[in-house]
Design brief:
heterodimer, A: alpha+beta, Thrombin, subunit H, Pdz3 Domain, 3 domains, six-stranded antiparallel barrel, about 25% helix, globular, B: alpha+beta, six-stranded antiparallel beta barrel
């Protein structure tokens, strides 16, 4: 699209039409990312999405060209925002499980908001600031429902720059956005986090329970056209073109149906009240049982796995037996394998493992990581998956073998 | 007005057509599809007569500027293929005579002969000139013309995060007519360090962009918003999302490449620099020398274990990583300013960097690594502390697979080269293309001969000079001996088969031996001197101006002859009698003509940290010539 087209577009449209188109895009986004994966749009390259994105870009660009008068340059915005995004280091480091992610400073006293993940499954998490200062952070609270966590480190006498969640902004589809995170762990020490640019493609409810990297978060998210959600990006900032916080980048999500990776951010409004409660010390994490259960919960029996008898509170989840010709047997799991993660969630005990499995739909694809002797191995178990989902599994497996 | 309105409609219609063709079922059969509504709405809304037809002039100007920039930066961009037109990547022309940059890992697959497609549709033969395997850079030369469209070089040090940037190249080898693909994005990070992939490839101080870099973009240019070349694209972070762009591409900064280009023109395989000392960041956040070689120049200039590094190569150093980052941008042999602190006192020195690899080592590694190393996963022994960069799965945006097994085809140097290339290619150990070394030796020497031919003077020279204090100095040279008379005494030297022991006069580092080698070069020229090669261009002299450097080895010592590339004059000699010793350096200036020959009338002789002597030359008495008194 040339600038000429853009300018005409902008000139031709009246305020009412503008709104209409936005609604349409949101609508479109809803259908694509909405909770009916078996709807008419199966093709990952669905042209309608391409058109929707193109239109979104178009409007954003047209809008920006006008709005840019007197606006701060991206370079200025970068320098203002980067110091408020931190690099986090915790557990992980195995194949496909990075030991780093990103976080947002949300108070001058060292509160860090991030995405709850296995990286935080450590007593201490290392926080590295934009200027290279390094701190150890303690857990304040975590909410498995919205999958956010707040950590705290002690910056000493010096205040740190932070995002004021109560002053956060919001954006409509078509708005130009910037994504700040330590994706791929590129920045180290006193290096600043990376900055990507893009456009809000849609505001749509997230329903990703059945994906490869499932999340509990339900509610509207910003879908963006920048490759914002790479490894390590979770917990980073999505801002508008002026550097005002719009949301927090979520963890990696890949559609089990289309195989596409989702680039998205949780809007501030979705978690700000929870964070307030956490900071005020009045937050009680909901039990896993409070989460709405799947229609047909999966079980270890259905997978063909018998765990060792659950004798103590934290019985290590060893596999006692694998039923022949079961999904587990076909995948290659064996007796004495120690379960480490189920769909990237840490299974610390037999009890944990059972809960994690029960939260999955009976036809879900299950990624199980185990420790066998000294080897860390990963397996993908499928029960009665539709043929196209199976193809996706193969693709994943091939890539990981590279 | 009407014209452009029609164009819009046409585009939309076109778009609709394509959609129908692409996915007839979804687009036509399903009336619920939002796409339909969207399109209808768009068409309706575009067809409505617009109330105000004149767009904002600022937008039109911005549009026109961008179109002009894209046009301008497309012209020097190359699509590179091997001699059979297969495989390949991208490149960019940097001078009208056809020198162009690409990635080492692109030319590793094409071999010494390649074909380059220009945006105007021409396909031109090109030859490999020089290689920087560590920095993943190859210099090539397009043949047959001297009016190629060259890119304007920018300043990568002034690039900021958030700046707009263009990536131009030939991703997925899309362009049949060689018109490059342009992607647009922002700079996501600067001064990034990417750990070596395998043992060689290291991206130090590189630029990170979210403009799409895909397979086939390798070796192509990264331009700033004004269309100035700021980097060469070559790498991306991909991991589990497959080998396509995920918003993270890296470009080797042009300021690093600028230092290497003059050396790459020599046809050599050029090594990166080592300081001979390593750094660590201590708990207080200071960068401390934690190891140093006692035969390094850094040690001789006074750097010691435990010293704090403050500045290096013109940049403040805050972490050990930052030091590595800056160091990685320098070629072997470069002199770099360094500031270090000990007991609260700061010392400023200039340190000569050595190579990372020993002689022949780089070439051997290269042979073993004909295919660019692209480890997919962090090495299992990779146990860096948190916060240190991970060795994350760098997969260069290397050329699309020319063979089914995904490995680039091995270059076959024995295969017959195209005729145009054969005339500019010569294989030799240690060289990417020896033809260019020979060419530049001759170029430099012919330029010098135009300033004076000494072949007929013979070995017997008497040179009268004065020290800065006004004392007389007499230098007598002949084929076998040399003698210098200075206010504090007389020294002599014998020029036998070995010059290694000839260090006289004391504290000069071997001035007489250096003068003997000077004579030898002037009388014999590089062809008869002995073991000689062209090193390339390096900064020389008090103003650090770039000078052509010819390295000559005789009598067991290495001497370097520096020539002013503009005048052709010899502006300095360095002679290093042994590794780990400071050289005797003679800076020549005040060059004036004496009997048809240009000779220096001011010599500054340095050794280590000391100036041995500043000599003002009164007369040159070259045996066959009548003594020439220096006129006022």
């Amino acid at each position: 699209m040339s600038w000429r087209v853009l300018s005409r577009l902008r000139l031709a449209n009246s305020e009412m039409r503008y709104t209409q188109i936005r609604l349409r895009i949101a609508d479109c986004g809803l259908r694509i990312w909405g909770n009916n994966p078996k709807s008419e749009i199966r093709n990952p390259k669905s042209t309608s999405r391409v058109v929707a994105l193109a239109v979104a870009c178009l409007l954003a660009l047209a809008g920006d060209a006008w709005a840019s008068d007197g606006a701060a340059s991206f370079a200025t915005v970068a320098r203002r925002v980067q110091p408020k995004v931190v690099k986090l280091y915790g557990t992980g480091g195995f194949r496909g499980l990075e030991s780093y992610q990103s976080g947002l400073l949300i108070s001058s006293k060292g509160h860090v908001l991030t995405v709850w993940s296995y990286v935080l499954d450590a007593d201490d998490v290392t926080v590295v600031l934009d200027d290279g200062r390094r701190f150890t952070a303690k857990h304040v609270a975590a909410d498995p429902l919205s999958e956010i966590a707040v950590l705290k480190f002690d910056p000493g006498d010096e205040d740190v720059p932070y995002f004021d969640l109560s002053a956060a902004a919001s954006a409509e589809p078509g708005a130009r956005v910037l994504a700040f995170s330590n994706l791929f762990g590129i920045a180290a020490g006193d290096e600043s986090v990376s900055m990507l640019h893009g456009v809000v493609s849609a505001l749509a409810p997230l329903d990703a329970r059945r994906g490869a990297f499932a999340t509990n978060f339900r509610g509207e998210v910003y879908v963006v056209d920048a490759a914002a959600n790479n490894p390590g990006a979770a917990g980073g900032a999505l801002t508008d073109s002026q550097g005002r916080l719009l949301g927090m980048l979520g963890k990696e999500l890949r559609s089990g149906v289309t195989g596409t990776w989702l680039n998205y951010a949780l809007p501030v409004a979705a978690f700000a009240p929870t964070v307030d409660d956490m900071l005020a010390g009045r937050f009680t994490p909901p039990e896993l049982t409070e989460l709405d259960r799947p229609n047909n919960p999966l079980s270890f029996a259905a997978l063909g796995i018998v765990l060792v008898p659950d004798v103590v509170t934290r019985t290590p989840p060893y596999i006692d037996r694998v039923i022949p010709d079961s999904p587990a047997a076909r995948a290659g799991l064996r007796t004495d394998d120690l379960l480490i993660t189920i769909n990237a969630q840490v299974a610390a005990s037999c009890r944990d493992a059972v809960k994690l499995v029960e939260r999955l739909e009976s036809d879900a694809e299950v990624h199980i990581a185990v420790l066998r002797n000294d080897d860390f191995l990963e397996f993908t178990l499928t029960t009665e998956a539709p043929p196209d989902a199976r193809t996706d599994t193969t693709v994943v497996a091939e890539q990981e073998d590279e | 007005m009407n014209g452009s309105r029609t164009e819009i409609r046409f585009r939309i219609a076109d778009c609709g057509l394509r959609i129908d063709k692409h996915n007839p079922q979804s687009a036509i059969r399903n009336p619920q599809l939002p796409l339909r509504n969207l399109l209808l709405l768009l068409v309706a809304f575009l067809a409505t007569p617009s109330p105000a037809a004149e767009p904002d002039p600022a937008v039109l100007a911005a549009e026109a500027e961008r179109v002009a920039t894209v046009e301008r930066i497309s012209r020097p961009t190359l699509a590179i293929f091997d001699a059979n037109g297969q495989g390949g990547g991208s490149g960019v022309i940097i001078s009208p005579d056809g020198y162009a940059l690409s990635n080492f890992h692109v030319t590793a697959a094409t071999g010494p002969a390649m074909k380059c497609g220009l945006s105007d549709g021409r396909l031109v033969d090109a030859v490999l000139v020089g290689l920087d395997p560590g920095g993943d850079i190859a210099l090539i030369k397009l043949l047959g013309h001297d009016d190629f469209p060259a890119a304007e070089l920018g300043d990568s040090d002034s690039v900021r995060v958030g700046d707009w940037a263009y990536v131009v190249g030939n991703p997925f080898l899309l362009a049949d007519d060689f018109k490059p693909t342009v992607t647009y994005g922002i700079i996501s990070g600067v001064q990034r360090y990417q750990y070596p992939a395998g043992t060689l490839l290291e991206y130090a101080d590189c630029l990170q962009t979210d403009a799409a870099i895909n397979p086939g973009n390798s070796g192509g240019p990264l331009f700033d918003a004004a269309g100035r070349l700021i980097g060469i694209n070559g790498r991306g972070s991909f991991e589990k999302r497959g080998r396509v762009n995920v918003g993270v591409g890296y470009a080797i900064s042009i300021n690093q490449i600028k230092r290497f280009v003059g050396l790459l023109k020599s046809g050599r395989i050029v090594d990166h620099a080592s300081l001979g000392a390593t750094m660590t960041t201590d708990p207080d956040g200071r960068v401390i020398v934690d190891d140093i070689l006692d035969d390094s120049d850094a040690f001789r200039r006074g750097l010691r274990y435990g010293d704090e590094l403050v500045r290096f190569g013109g940049r403040e150093i805050g972490t050990a990583n930052a030091f590595k980052n800056v160091l990685g941008t320098f070629p072997a042999g470069w002199r770099v300013p360094i500031t270090f602190r000990r007991d609260g006192r700061e010392f400023e020195r200039r340190v000569r960097l050595t190579g990372v690899h020993r002689e022949g080592e780089l070439e051997a590694l290269l042979g073993a690594e004909q295919e660019p190393p692209v480890p997919d996963r962090p090495r299992p022994d990779d146990k860096r502390p948190p916060g240190e960069p991970q060795d994350r799965t760098p997969k260069p945006g290397d050329p699309p697979k020319p063979r089914d097994d995904g490995r680039p085809a091995r270059p076959s140097r024995t295969k017959k080269l195209p005729r145009a290339v054969r005339k500019h290619y010569e294989e030799a150990p240690g060289y990417a293309n020896y033809w260019f070394n020979r060419y530049h030796q001759q170029r430099v020497w012919n330029a010098y001969l135009a300033r004076g031919d000494f072949a007929e003077t013979g070995w017997n020279w008497n040179i009268k000079a004065q020290t800065a204090a006004g004392a007389d100095v007499l230098i007598k040279l002949n084929e076998k001996t040399g003698e210098i008379t200075m206010p504090d005494g007389k020294s002599g030297a014998q020029f036998g088969l070995s010059l290694v022991e000839e260090q006289s006069p004391p504290r000069s580092g071997g001035l007489l031996a250096a003068l003997h080698l000077w004579q030898r070069m002037l009388l014999f020229g590089p062809r008869r001197f002995g073991d000689v090669y062209y090193l390339g261009t390096l900064p020389w002299g008090s103003d650090d101006a770039m000078a052509d450097c010819i390295v000559a080895i005789h009598g067991g010592v290495e001497s370097r002859f520096h020539f002013n590339p503009n005048t052709g004059d010899l502006v300095g000699i360095e002679m290093q009698s042994a590794d780990g010793e400071d050289p005797c350096e003679i800076l020549f200036s005040d060059i004036r003509e004496v009997d048809g020959r240009h000779l220096p009338h001011q010599w500054t002789i340095r050794h280590g940290d000391e100036v041995f002597a500043e000599l003002k030359i009164k007369s040159y008495e070259l045996a066959s010539a009548v003594p020439a008194e220096v006129s006022k």
